[in-house]
Amino acid sequence: MDTLLHPSTSSMAKRPCPSSAENPMLPSFFSQMDNLLLSFLSLSDSSPPVSLDLSFDRLLESAPSDADQSLLIDRAHNLGSLLLRAANRSARKRASLHNSIAWALPPDLTIKVFSMLDSQSLCYAAATCSMFNKCAMDPLCYANIDLTTVVPKVNNAVVSTMIQRAGKSFRSLKLGIVPGPTSSPGSCQPLVYSIRNSVDVSSFSWNDKKTRQGKESSILTRSCLYPLSGDNGAAGTLLRRLHLYNIERMDNASLCVALAACPSLLDLEIVGLHVELRQTLMSVSSNCHLIERLFFESSKTGRDDSLKSPTCVDLVNNCPNISYLSLRGFKLHDYKVRILVKGFRKLKYADFSTSYSISGTFLRSMQLFSTLSRKILLHPVFATYLLCCMRFFFYF
């Protein structure tokens, strides 16, 4: 074992290559080999393939025994494979030389450019040539993985492969189905989208898709986030940004396991997932203490009333760095919103614009100046009430 780990000097010494001075027969041998190969290749260009077959058959017939014929066939196979290998190697060398002349950027700058591409464009670039493929395999190119699509065409294997390629450079992951151009986070346009709207799978019901889970190769399932917690959570520890859109097969347990593996998460965006607000916020407050941006839009607008006051308090105490908070489509109440808005000292932006159960009375017990320094989006029906509050404040 010591010999294998620490080989001696004698075992590591390279065998000297024979030079032409030591063996004067080498130049003549190489010359004969070159002439033989040149004549063989010239014959293959000028002679029809049938003549080559007939010549080989005549050689086999002239062999004295069956063993000699088998040996001749084996040599032909070996020679053909050697010629094919040499031709492929030479073709790659010529292509690399051509690429290096046509593409002026060195590999390090090419990798830098590729790292700025989205994931789909990176895959297109990798399929262009061998040089681009080699540069596109660099981990820096997969630091920010964006696999969002308009129709389902990404599966769990693609996600796992890209996370493995990213290695220690992994920082951002975006997954799921986005309905057309992504809306700005501050707008009231919903991002929730159902897979039933997709052209590719419009003919299948939800039960049909569950039974076809093993056959559908372009749909993400609840296990799409398992690579974050695999290998002792090596990938999840490096993650800073996680955006998930309309993954219908995602559940509370799988999402909480993924969040538990992401202690350094700064930006979390969840849209259209069939997960509860309370369990998700509990997982965030327990594991993601550094989070600064939280965007959560419900898949069932106005029906999720799972959030409780203790969960709001835990979120405020355990995640004090939140400066952007958006909880859209949930059944929230004024006292819960008051805990969140007043508790986050660094909060600069809050969006509860699609929560119909908020009346706006939480502003009465807050210092209005501190509230006005923050941008808070509520449902339009509360505009008159807020205007009255402002007039009342400035009157006194």
From TrEMBL:
Keyword Transmembrane helix recorded: yes
Organism field: Gossypium raimondii
InterPro entries: F-box-like_dom_sf, F-box_dom, LRR_dom_sf
Pfam families: F-box-like (PF12937)
UniProt region (Disordered), positions on chain: 1-20
GO BP annotation list: SCF-dependent proteasomal ubiquitin-dependent protein catabolic process
This protein's UniProt keywords: Membrane, Transmembrane, Transmembrane helix
Designated name of the protein: F-box domain-containing protein
Domain annotation F-box: ranges: 103-147
